[in-house]
């Protein structure tokens, strides 16, 4: 097996290791730049960022590395913003707000789909103007118009898929490669074809990877539960050309995850993460905590992303400020026992050495 392949050539990186984009402040400029400097690909989780913030971070990273790095964006999907569903969901959060001594919320300030779409287009313009070489997407596939514009500027495009059909659609739309996300993965599910049943139907990486690589010809990047050289070697055996890892980078020294978040991931066992849509309206895997358990009965009728995400914003912000893990969204994959507090350089060096021992050639 070779660690250099079509994917590493296309991304101009030494090792087929991508630091997952992690929106919400985890992917600091240092984390991204250190990954790229160590021979992997650093990615900025820019889904929630305003265009000016994205531009500033790109400039900061460019000062720290001359190597390629990428930007990841959320593809907007239509969502329902009916007043009734918002009020019901907001009511369910009342007791949580009381526990955190937060005032009731009656002004939701929720953007509609067209505004979200407009903001996405502005984010795309920053990627083009700042000449970022790689752009990846989750939650959907951008329009043909957006894809064509990015391609015109020679930007390498990566999609996300959680099923074979989603991978096929990514290839058909013109993506250069696709990240295949197994059910072990931390954070939001990147799927877009079967959202309602995401939690019970999701497919594990060992099953999904060979089925996807049989169905498409563009390079496949494996994601979900990969933490070390063993995971990299196994992924490549199953047909992937590289890996994208979130949880392994989240606990790194350079990551911007809240110390309480890092501590939670470092201390739990493999069966202590769950799927929830209570934080954002989209299924995501995180450490089981008080908020998730309390909201479990309301989960099915909560409004879609990004509505529920906006409704819970004050709760997450207060929990963050108070170092309170009970109400934070502690996204994490299932391979928590393999998480370490280490530098990015050590993580990548060890992975490559371990993969070499397992006969993956560099
Ligand atoms: C804290 C956290 C935030 C994440 N945010 C994003 C994101 O903004 N965009 C994205 O495409 N994937 C995101 N993901 C998912 C990762 O891309 C990847 O699928 C996942 O981390 C792989 O599983 P692992 O955490 O077990 O390595 C996130 C994952 C985590 C843990």
From TrEMBL:
Organism: Oceanobacillus oncorhynchi
GO MF terms held by the record: nitronate monooxygenase activity; nucleotide binding
Family: Belongs to the nitronate monooxygenase family. NMO class I subfamily.
Assigned keywords, A-Z: Detoxification, Flavoprotein, FMN, Monooxygenase, Nucleotide-binding, Oxidoreductase
Catalytic activity: 3 propionate 3-nitronate + 3 O2 + H2O = 3 3-oxopropanoate + 2 nitrate + nitrite + H2O2 + 3 H(+)
UniProt xrefs under Gene3D superfamilies: Aldolase class I
Segments passing through the bilayer: none
Pfam families: NMO (PF03060)
Record has Flavoprotein as a keyword: yes
Function in brief: Nitronate monooxygenase that uses molecular oxygen to catalyze the oxidative denitrification of alkyl nitronates. Acts on propionate 3-nitronate (P3N), the presumed physiological substrate. Probably functions in the detoxification of P3N, a metabolic poison produced by plants and fungi as a defense mechanism.
Top-rank taxon: Bacteria
Protein known as: Probable nitronate monooxygenase
GO biological process, one term: response to toxic substance
Cofactor field: FMN
Record carries keyword Plastid: no
